[in-house]
């Protein structure tokens, strides 16, 4: 009898151990611990009302974070992290951040400048192979500073050639050099340091510079930013298998007709596959910590350089100035700086209002890249509606 | 490129078989031949990515001659097809083309067409729609998207009926077309696509 009891106990313990070791599937359908209560925040009702309105109007799921010195922190969500699994979006879900990557890369570059490993006036060709720089438009003339400020005249990667390739093989993974092939030997859009042209190639080249100096740019991001800031829910996806538990599913309204498709697998493949242009997934809270650290100068003594905004000539852009990996956004309520992230199954906004010391983060899981309507709503109307309450 | 070579080899082999069985009877053919095409679909500009991914295409069509000149044939053709594409969506194209065919006395021909058409395209994945009444996304049946296409074809082949041998014409052709609209965005509202096909046209004998 005692033997049976010992055997039963052993089996129970073994079962407990094996079940606790079982890995969770990579879907947002797991119950992630997200005990947040901002009901006492003075603007809670107004903020939540805006978020609800957006989730009912084209956005599958959305999370917004506002942190201001008077009323403190508020986070709220609406809609779904996964339609198929019936998982409601909550503020702890992880999101694709797309071009927010540029602000992280700019930060690492400025840290390397701090450490005298790099100079802003250095030529790109001093830090990458002659073989690559010879094929980059203006490659022999552009400096590190020109790349940070997107004043190189180098065309963007994500133009028609990339798009047609994408629709033939959406799961393709690119190395830094492979991605740069899209701009090899193209005509420059302007002479160096004369005009602003938004181009992911600028930051892919900066990533290549970091890779040459530091050995591995992903390690550099982790050791220089993620770990010092204790960004526990921020991950760099080097391959799709690394997608973390709690990552919200991605969707797109392909034809702009209100019919939504799940494109999570493609979005994850893009995040992981667009080396030097994408890769970071994060939460609203971690993104707040990051932009605050940038604003407070906690990451680099050169951080102030990031906010030397130069005018963006195209008046149709929501952002009117570009610094070093930072956009200046002004839609009537004063200057915000930060960055937008635009992808086929997600959208991300991280902004800091220097004058009012307010942080604004918005993350959602409906593609902005192929929809002007969603883009306009997310990158302009959402901020406008929050500004109306905040400022 | 390897796949294109395969198509050419198949085309040449078929040509040889039919030439070997040449006949000399005088045969009259009816106006509307039946054209069957099969090939591969790709997203891209002419001759770009033609065989990068396997997206089978099949179509049935016919044509109507506008002149009686055997050497310089002017015609109107129409094709109804089906494209299986798991990325941009399964598509049913229907096009009407205005064509010119140069037929050499050996039976070899070159042809080109300009055409317009419509596409019915279906989402490649499950589709959901937001329901305001219960604030959920409901799975709906996909009714597809109807858009227009404009495109051109270039082709070559061998007409076995030119010497009254067999009521067949075989060919290869590349059909480039632009679908508009695909995305609701100003800077990329179109979707350039192409199909590269082998076709067999059967000409019915006049009763």
Q: For this entry, what is the oligomeric state of its chains?
A: heterodimer
Q: For the terminal residues of chain B, how far apart are their CA atoms?
A: 43 Å
Q: Provide the β-strand percentage band of chain A.
A: 15-25%
Low-confidence stretches of chain A: 12-27
- Summarize the biggest pleated sheet of chain B: 8 strands, antiparallel, barrel
Q: Tell me, what is the CATH class of chain B?
A: Mainly Beta
User: Helix proportion of residues of chain A, in percent?
Assistant: 25-40%
How does this model look, in words?
The complex is a heterodimer of chains A (391) and B (207). Chain A has one domain (3-14, 42-390): Beta-lactamase (3-Layer(aba) Sandwich), CATH 3.40.710. Chain A is 35% helix and 16% strand. Chain A is built from 12 helices and 14 strands. Chain A has helices at residues 2-21, 44-55, 101-114, 130-133, 144-149, 160-168, 176-180, 200-214, 217-226, 264-273, 284-296, 372-390; strands at 61-68, 72-82, 87-88, 95-96, 235-236, 251-252, 259-262, 280-282, 310-311, 319-322, 327-329, 336-342, 347-353, 358-364. In chain A, strands 3-2-1-14-13-12-11-10-9 form a 9-stranded antiparallel beta sheet, with helices on both faces. Chain A has a 3-stranded antiparallel beta sheet with strand order 4-8-5, with helices on both faces. In chain A, a hairpin with a 4-residue loop joins strand 13 (347-353) and strand 14. In chain A, helix 3 (101-114) crosses helix 8 (200-214). The relative contact order of chain A is 0.17. Chain B is mainly β and 207 residues long. In chain B, 9% of the residues lie in helices and 53% in strands. Chain B has 1 helix and 10 strands; from the N terminus they run αββββββββββ. In chain B, the strands form 2 sheets. In chain B, strands 1-2-3-4-5-8-9-10 form an 8-stranded antiparallel barrel. Chain B has a two-stranded antiparallel ribbon with strand order 6-7. In chain B, a hairpin with a 7-residue loop joins strand 3 (72-83) and strand 4 (91-103). The longest helix of chain B is centred in the N-terminal third of the chain and has 19 residues, at 2-20. Residues 16-24 of chain B have low confidence and may be disordered. The interface between A and B is medium-sized, with 28 and 33 residues. Strand 7 of chain A pairs antiparallel with strand 6 (127-131) of chain B.
């Amino acid at each position: 009898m005692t033997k049976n009891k010992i055997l039963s106990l052993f089996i129970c313990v073994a079962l407990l151990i094996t079940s606790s070791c079982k890995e969770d599937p990579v879907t947002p359908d797991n119950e992630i611990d997200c005990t947040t209560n901002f009901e006492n925040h003075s603007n809670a009702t107004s903020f939540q009302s805006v978020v609800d309105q957006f989730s009912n109007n084209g956005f599958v799921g959305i999370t917004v974070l506002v942190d201001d010195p008077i009323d403190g922190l508020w986070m709220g969500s609406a809609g779904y992290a996964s339609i198929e699994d019936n998982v409601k979006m909550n503020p702890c879900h992880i999101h694709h951040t797309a071009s927010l990557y540029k602000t992280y890369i700019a930060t690492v570059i400025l840290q390397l400048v701090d450490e005298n490993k790099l100079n802003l006036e250095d030529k790109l060709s001093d830090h990458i192979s002659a073989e690559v720089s010879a094929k980059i438009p203006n490659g022999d003339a552009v400096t590190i500073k020109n790349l940070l400020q997107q004043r190189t005249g180098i065309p963007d990667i994500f133009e028609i050639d990339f798009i047609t390739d994408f629709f033939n093989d959406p799961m393709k993974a690119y190395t830094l050099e492979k991605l740069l092939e899209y701009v090899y030997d193209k005509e420059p859009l302007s002479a160096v340091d004369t005009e602003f042209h938004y181009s992911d190639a600028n930051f892919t080249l900066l990533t290549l510079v970091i890779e040459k100096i530091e050995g591995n740019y992903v390690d550099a991001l982790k050791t220089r930013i993620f770990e010092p800031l204790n960004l526990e829910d921020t991950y760099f996806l080097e391959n799709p298998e690394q997608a973390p538990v709690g990552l919200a599913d991605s969707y797109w309204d392909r034809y702009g007709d209100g019919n939504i498709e799940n494109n999570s697998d493609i979005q994850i493949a893009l995040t992981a596959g667009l080396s030097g242009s994408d890769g970071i997934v994060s939460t609203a809270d971690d993104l707040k910590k990051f932009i605050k650290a940038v604003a407070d100068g906690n990451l680099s003594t050169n951080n102030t350089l990031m906010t030397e905004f130069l005018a963006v000539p195209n008046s149709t852009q929501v952002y009117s100035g570009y610094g070093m990996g930072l956009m200046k956004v002004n839609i009537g309520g004063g200057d915000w700086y930060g960055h937008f992230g635009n992808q086929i199954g997600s959208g991300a906004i991280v902004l800091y209002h220097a004058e009012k010391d307010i942080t604004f983060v918005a993350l959602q899981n409906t593609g902005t890249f192929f929809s002007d309507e969603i883009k306009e709503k997310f990158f302009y109307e959402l901020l406008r509606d929050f500004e109306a309450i905040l400022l | 490129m390897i796949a294109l070579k395969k198509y050419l080899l198949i085309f040449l082999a078929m040509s040889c078989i039919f030439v070997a069985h040449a006949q000399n009877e005088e045969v009259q053919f009816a106006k509307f031949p039946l054209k069957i095409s099969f090939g591969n679909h790709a997203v891209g500009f002419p001759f770009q990515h033609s065989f990068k991914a396997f997206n089978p295409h099949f179509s049935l069509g016919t044509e109507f001659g506008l002149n009686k000149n055997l050497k310089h044939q002017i015609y109107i053709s129409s094709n109804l097809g089906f494209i299986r594409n798991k990325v941009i969506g399964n598509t049913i194209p229907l096009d009407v083309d205005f064509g010119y065919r140069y037929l050499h006395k050996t039976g070899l021909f070159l042809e080109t067409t300009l055409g317009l058409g419509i596409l019915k395209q279906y989402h490649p994945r499950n589709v959901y729609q937001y329901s305001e009444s219960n604030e959920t996304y409901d799975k709906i049946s996909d009714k597809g998207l109807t858009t227009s296409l404009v495109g051109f074809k270039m082709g070559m082949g061998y007409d076995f009926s030119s010497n009254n041998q067999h009521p067949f014409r075989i060919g290869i052709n590349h059909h480039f077309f632009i679908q508009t609209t695909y995305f609701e965005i100003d800077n990329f509202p179109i979707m350039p696509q192409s199909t590269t096909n082998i076709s067999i046209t059967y000409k019915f004998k006049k009763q």
